[in-house]
Write a structure and sequence with these properties.
The protein has 468 residues and is α/β, with parallel strands linked by helices. It has 17 helices and 13 strands. Strands 1, 4, 5, 6, 7, 8, 9, 10, 11, 12 and 13 form an eleven-stranded mixed beta sheet that branches. α5 runs antiparallel to α7, α7 crosses α16 and α16 packs antiparallel against α17.
């Protein structure tokens, strides 16, 4: 058996080189995944990462998609990766057969687009086994201040699905912050308080107000509709209700100055949103200094709308005997902790930050960073699956792949579009994105199917294209 594997390795120099490369990267340039403080960037020893055994088993399939989901600009970096793949494929075709490489390259477009779009949909909507946080502290709780259900115009999931996602990602509590309204959120909070909704995670009422800048309004107790209202009116009303106002992702757009919001009596600023810290780091430091000098809190907003399983930002607060508190006491403890500056923001760190304008260089950088962060079991998974495929020698019929990938992926994407359309029916007055995605998926799916049929026709009409 060993001699057989040795001979297989000799016949597959690329796989052999790849195996030695990932082992070498981990031996000499390993960068462990850490939970770090978003202010100091130092590791937080009370928290660690749990890597699901299913992920380790399926690492070559799910690993890189999950890594991209945690990127600062996941969509842009994902699209860039596929552009690199398509160009690399064209170069390989050119080297192999200069005479017909252009025809082969063009005829591969439907299959490449089908795979790229299908994998993107799979990354967003399937419960992939993402890494999760482990809280080793007895008294610290983890909470989120920024989340949307499908009662927001751009939310993809129900409130119940939001609760499941937060529970799975280690949160003890979260504020549900629909865009500009809160009646449905207040109803859910009352249901949980009365035992009609699951107890964990603890649910608190908020709003994301689209004012001069987006702001999260936390700890609301009364109905509030903020469409078209001035900052000063909304901030005053939130404070009347005993709530707090945090400026959301100010660093993304920066319409008004930090001083403007301080003078408007906001209570704090986000320094991290989704997978992004305030960037560049000079802006990050400006926000921190302004908050420290004016006794304002810092927030980490997950800003979760339902896109994928991964989480990269958490808020931490020391609240002893959390489980023994009743519903109102839990909410008050979180709000009091924010008022007194007891909140810490922690983030998932698995790569060095990349300037947003350089995302065209992201594919090689991401691939290197991804393999640097693997543990021994994930490396074994990569090599093991590789050995399996070169041992079994699965012969790939490229002609069939070029024909059937667009047809199959197009059909699957259309089905997902129909599912999203059905999901939009209860919230048709609140939500836009479900219908928009449904229409987009339907059009993309139809285009892919047409592309697959055209490829089949061209291959039958001009068989020389796929020869050799």
């Amino acid at each position: 058996m060993i001699e057989h594997l040795k001979s297989k390795y000799k016949l597959h120099p690329i796989f052999t080189a790849f195996s030695f490369w990932i082992i070498g990267v981990n031996l000499f340039a390993h960068r462990p995944i850490q939970i770090i403080n978003a202010v100091t960037f130092n590791p937080e020893n009370n928290f660690s990462i749990q890597i699901n055994w299913i992920r380790e088993l399926l690492e070559p399939i799910v690993g890189l998609p999950l890594f991209i989901l945690r990127a600062g600009q996941p969509v842009e970096e994902y699209v860039t990766l596929w552009i690199w793949i398509f160009i690399s494929f064209g170069i390989i075709l050119f080297i192999k057969n200069k005479a017909v490489f252009l025809q082969k390259w063009i005829i591969s477009i439907p299959a490449v687009l089908g795979m790229a779009f299908f994998i993107l949909v799979w990354m967003i909507f399937w419960p992939l086994p993402s890494n999760t946080i482990i809280n080793h502290s007895d008294s610290k709780i983890i909470f989120n201040t920024h989340a949307h259900s499908y009662f927001s115009h751009d939310g993809l999931i129900t409130a119940e699905e939001q609760m499941e996602w937060h529970d799975r990602n280690g949160f003890d509590a979260f504020f549900l912050t629909e865009h500009n309204h809160n009646p449905n959120t207040l109803k859910l909070v009352r249901q949980q308080k009365n035992g009609l909704l699951r107890k964990k995670p603890h649910l608190m009422a908020g709003i994301e107000f689209s004012g001069s800048n987006h702001m999260v309004l936390l700890g609301l107790t009364d109905t509030l509709i903020t469409f078209g209202k001035k900052d000063s009116i909304v901030i005053s009303e939130v404070h009347r209700q005993g709530g707090l106002v945090g400026v959301a992702h100010w660093f993304d757009g920066r319409k008004n100055s930090i001083k403007y919001f301080i003078d408007s009596n906001v209570d704090g600023f986000e320094i991290a949103n989704k997978n992004q810290i305030a960037f560049p780091l000079e802006i990050h430091r400006d926000i921190i200094d302004a908050c420290e000098n004016n006794q304002l809190f810092l927030l980490g907003g997950v800003d979760y709308h339902g896109y994928g399983p991964a989480c990269g930002t958490w808020n931490v607060m020391d609240i002893p005997n959390w489980e023994s508190l009743n519903h109102g006491e839990k909410t008050n403890a979180v709000l009091d902790g924010l008022k007194n500056g007891k909140n810490q923001v922690i983030i998932y760190s698995d790569r060095h930050g990349m300037p947003f304008e350089n995302y065209w260089l992201s594919p090689p950088v991401n691939i290197l960073n991804y393999f640097r962060g693997l543990n021994i079991f994930q490396i074994i998974s990569w090599i093991g699956w590789g050995i399996f495929f070169i041992t079994v020698i699965i012969k790939i019929n490229s002609k069939l792949m070029l024909q059937w990938i667009p047809l199959l992926t197009g059909s699957a994407i259309i089905i997902k579009g129909r599912i999203l359309l059905q999901k939009s029916e209860p919230v048709i007055q609140h939500n836009d994105v479900l219908v928009e995605f449904s229409e987009l998926f339907t059009l993309v799916g139809i285009a892919l199917i047409i592309g697959g049929v055209m490829v089949q026709f061209l291959m039958n009409r001009f068989p020389a294209i796929t020869s050799n």
